[in-house]
Amino acid sequence: MNGSVSIITPTFNSAKYIAETIQSVQKQTYSNWEMIIVDDCSKDKTVEIIQNFMEDDHRIHLIQMNKNGGPAKARNKGIEKAQGDYMTFLDADDLWFPDFIENSIHSIKETGIHFVFSSYRRSNENLEFVYSDFIVPKKVTYTDILKTNSISCLTAFVDIKTLGKKTMPEIFKRQDMGLWLKYLKEIPFAYGIQEPKAIYRIRENSLSRNKANLLKYQWQFYREVEKLNFFQSVYYMLHWMYRGFMKYRN
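The structure assignment produced for this chain is given below.
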């Protein structure tokens, strides 16, 4: 097994969680990685904590944005700087199990599918597993993702040496979905790893849980990013609303 991995982590006022996130990367059984942390003008001690880790680990790199631009701009800056054969994302409050990278690369080599993603456990802010695990489908296509985004940012893993680099649409929400769809327009499907390999921390103020607030962003995504017609947008929106409700049931 070989190949370098670029891990892209956007941060904004993440001092409470960023150390645990970095440590989960350092505990990986696969060591050939670079962690590109893009700070989006944090006001707390996020940058100081990252710099302390950088003193002892040359694989960790920090990029500081000149002005706050949101997660899409931050992630795209990380994508621009990525030097690895593989690209993956980890938000500043989420965690990986130690074999996440190793298992993702193994799955790519075993299946020949150059875009894989994993199931994950879901915890509250205190890492208590009060929600059921999210088990992903064994494969998802372009139209599957339009119905519900089963690929979470914290487990998406792309062979960019083969598929090339692509960037996220710089929109307020659903930017990760936009990136997955760019790849799925060119490949038959992405491969889902059934065993949970990460921990998604659900915070009380998480917008991703408030589906009512997301309705307008989802509709704009269908119409303005994917350029779907009105009837297609209604069709996929109904699927998205139903599956979104089911996803966040305990």
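Interim note for the steering committee: The chain has nine helices and nine strands. The domain at 5-247 is CATH 3.90.550.10 (Spore Coat Polysaccharide Biosynthesis Protein SpsA; Chain A).
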